[in-house]
Design brief:
The protein is of the alpha+beta class. The protein has 4 helices and 5 strands; from the N terminus they run H-H-E-E-H-E-E-H-E.
């Protein structure tokens, strides 16, 4: 007996035509364009709070502002400054006195100065700075300072150095190696 399937002609249906796929960069460009269009629409249609316009008739005084005023900040700078045992020195080199000017007493050379390289809130940062200065051959000191009983700083300093000229020379040497420093007078 012959099978009902054996005499059938093979399925000759054509496969659907393959559509040409667009490259990925085209889809990215389309997505970017749509995204920018949505962003522009949202930006344009956002609500805008206009500034209130207060019209006062001529000759009348404006109403006083009854909004609460913020209290002025209390700075303790003016109380702290006189208590500080140091003075920042002008970084410019000292000019040689002229013949007409009287020569000051040599007591300035006995004054001690520190060269402060940095001040950090973290002791680890101060230790790193001290190590960097040690690579230059400079022995730094870390000084812990608490300001106003709240903030603690770690100062990285070189010295003490006797005489302003020696302190300024040390400061310039440190500055040439990429550090910012300042000369501080010890009182």
């Amino acid at each position: 007996m012959a099978s009902a399937y054996g005499n059938r002609p093979p399925n000759r249906r054509k496969p659907p035509p393959r559509r040409a796929d667009m490259p990925g960069w085209v889809w990215a460009l389309v997505g970017l364009t749509v995204g920018l269009a949505v962003a522009a629409y949202v930006y344009i249609t956002r609500p805008v709070d206009p500034m209130p316009v207060v019209a006062t008739p001529r000759g009348s005084a404006p109403e006083p502002d009854t909004s609460p005023t913020p209290s002025p900040r209390q700075f303790s700078f003016y109380e702290l400054l006189p208590k500080q045992p140091e003075v920042v020195v002008d970084p410019r080199p000292i000019e040689e006195p002229t013949a007409a000017a009287p020569v000051p007493a040599p007591t300035a050379s006995s004054t001690e100065y520190w060269v402060q390289v940095a001040a950090y809130r973290s002791a680890d940062d101060a230790e790193r700075q001290k190590a960097a200065l040690a690579l230059l051959g400079e022995e730094a000191v870390i000084e812990k300072v608490t300001i106003d009983g709240r903030e603690t700083f770690y100062r990285v300093r070189l010295g003490p150095v006797k005489g302003l000229n020696a302190a300024q020379a040390l400061s310039q040497s440190v500055n040439r190696n990429g550090f910012d420093s300042m000369v501080v007078k010890v009182q």
